[in-house]
Amino acid sequence: MNKIAAITLALVASTASGQNLLNNAGFEDPLGFDFSNVTNWNGFFGGPAGTFLQAFNDTGAAPLSGSNALVLTIQGDANFPTTGFDAFTGHVQQIPGIAEGAEYDLSIWARANGNVNNGAELRIEWFDAADNNIGSTGNLEFQDLLTNDYQQFSISGVAPAGTVRANAVIAVQSFLNDGVIADISIAVDDASFVLVPAPASAALLGFGGLCATRRRR
């Protein structure tokens, strides 16, 4: 394999390695709530009075790895069954340097952390240079798939033309009022946001590996 091919292979391998573009991906470090650092996770909340909302990583919930997991909870008052609905809470992180037309994958590991009577969702939001939201991928609603064990959930999307950054969003919500107390709690860990290698790059990587194998014979 010649020098040019070797350099090309090295570049493709770096792209294909799936570098995680998220900061604080395992929720080990303190989380943000004032958006002073938008490239960390920042919590958001909303709902009627009397609703318990939680979006923290120091709750003592068992993580998948490390010491902490993100816990998202909505809970109404059992004495007032209609409280807690029309509420939401979650965390969002901005990812700069997104390439328009490229495909990205957002994934998390999540489990039930109690009752799951409402919605849990995963979403990618796309923004242009003027900070306009120009599209989204998701919402992936995964509440019906949650168990007491961690499972991986992921979505993939192509950044629209004009995209320069993305938002990774993890949230729970109680917008469906079914007459039962709003009650959902999930634990989330080991999030990732990665560039998906283009098919041509993947093929080139395979060809380079084949060449390298032949050279060793």
Please summarize what this structure is.
With 217 residues, the chain is mainly β.
Provide the succession of SSEs: HEEEEEEEEEEH
Overall structural class, as computed from helix and strand content, comes to mainly beta
Number of strands: 10
Q: Looking at the structure, what is the overall shape?
A: globular
Major sheet details: 5 strands, antiparallel
Helix content: 10-25%
DSSP summary: helix tally? 2
User: Proportion of β residues?
Assistant: 35-45%
- Identify the strand order in the major beta sheet: 1-4-9-6-7
User: Mean pLDDT score, rounded?
Assistant: 85
Distance between the termini: 13 Å
Short key terms for the protein model shown above:
mainly beta, 217 residues, 2 helices, single chain, five-stranded antiparallel β-sheet
